[in-house]
Amino acid sequence: MVSAGQRAQRAPRPKAQRLSADKKQQILKTLCGGIEKSPVLSALNIRAVDRRGRFYFERLWEDEDEPEEEVIGRITPLTGAKLNLLLEVR
């Protein structure tokens, strides 16, 4: 049996940074512009949205009754001297 002291220590999770509304809009505009310029991402109906201080990449599925959204990735702004972004994918 492994004791608590012998378990591998996990690195602490990075802390999210709160952004101003202007900075959020700037980042979202950049993400959306990149998607629009990409024929592949545009053809796959990928979009970027801002929710709860994070940015999400979603794929829109066209359904007869109702369009469906699938989250495929999330970007979290991290605290620090420079604006760093953490990309998590599913």
Q: What distinguishing features does this structure have?
A:
90 residues, alpha+beta, 4-stranded antiparallel beta sheet
Low-confidence stretches: none
Number of helices: 2
Find the structural class using helix and strand composition.
alpha+beta
Largest sheet: 4 strands, antiparallel
| Domains, number | 1
Mean pLDDT: 88
Q: Based on DSSP secondary structure assignment, what is the total number of beta strands? A: 4
The ordered H/E elements are: HHEEEE
- Ends: how far apart? 33 Å
Side-by-side strand order of the widest sheet:
1-2-3-4
- Portion of residues in helices? 10-25%
Range of strand content: 25-35%
Envelope shape? globular
Could you tell me the radius of gyration in angstroms?
Answer: 17 Å
Describe this structure in words.
- This protein has 90 residues and is an alpha+beta fold.
- The chain has one domain.
- Helices cover 24% and strands 34% of the residues.
- The chain has a four-stranded antiparallel β-sheet.
- The model has no long low-confidence stretch (mean pLDDT 88).
